[in-house]
Amino acid sequence: MEQNNTHPRSLEELRAEIDELDQRLFSLLARRMAVVRTIGEVKRSNDIPISDPVREALLKARLKELASGILEPWHVEELASVIIRISRELQTKSNKDSNPKV
Question: How many domains does the chain have?
């Protein structure tokens, strides 16, 4: 969105932009989590552990690089940790759902 610096945007306009960004953000997160579930299935069928500390550390480092200058490193660390925790939960749940106890 282009901004005219002589006319400040209203609170309502800014909130509308946040609402639009939130919709896009959560749509992308939902797509990411769908891929995460598929990864859980691949891990299960190949007997690979859900947790991969090396991959998680690389992901956090990459995200910190992408957000450098925008977010503080600890913000990125916290966001990445939440995404990773939810991803692990979905993969674990997917694995349990696929192996029901008789």
Answer: 1
